[in-house]
Amino acid sequence: MEFIDYYKILNLDKSASDADIKKAYRKLAREHHPDLNPNDKEAHKRFQQINEANEVLSDPEKRKKYDQYGKDWKHAEQFEQARQEQGRAQGFGGSGGPAYESFDDDRFSDFFESLFGTGSHRTEARFRGQDIQAQLQLTLTEAYTTHQQTFSINGKNVRITVPAGIEDGQVIKLKGHGGPGRNGGPNGDLYITFSIRNDSNVKRSGNDLYINVPIDLYTAVLGGEQVIDTLGGKLKLKVNPETQNGTKLRVKGKGFPVYKKEGQFGDLYVTYTVQIPTNLTDRQKELFRQLSQEK
Known about the structure:
alpha+beta, HSP40/DNAj peptide-binding domain
């Protein structure tokens, strides 16, 4: 297996803190997101590597294994067990410390293979299958409701339930849906990165939604009601008399669903845009003149 330097992928060194990793991941994920690079295959590959690096380095236990065992980190537990058994069999290692201390990557890999060789005098080790990275594209309308999606991985159809409120760039894990294990080992996991395209007239920020609503001059001056289309259906809004252009209001609980919290929603923020009438008749223009003289 080729060694992948996750620190290098995120432009970090091994002393990076959890905050450094989180900050680097967010920056690079935005920069290489497929939506911003639709025709760039390299950017898509880079985006997958960035997600894989973050998945390992943001998990303290996985990071510890990666730092210690390099490209063989996924087999750390099998290695430790086999190393202890061989150490006891050969009479070294003692009851306390490890049998071996420091290896460069090549020597370590050779030693690892010697422990898990396939010769007749050895027992073949069970290896966990490779994890698989996949991307699933949704529209904002689809992400608003809990629904099922079916897609193909390695020739097999996988059906998943996508919870309402999924975020753009969010990654979920399907345990055991990755590559097959070797010698009876467990399958790897499937990691799905969601890419969400806005197909509506609202903008999303976290669990809140933002929308510009045009109102005619007469409604703005005299007041009234305005019916708008939202992701949750039609919504009737009250317009106060003498509403100014750019007036903002908050509609509580009419925003985006909160992920995996049924019945909880963010808020909807409405900005009124007053439309000035055009193609006025002479009579209408005269009425406006009269109004302007009475102020």
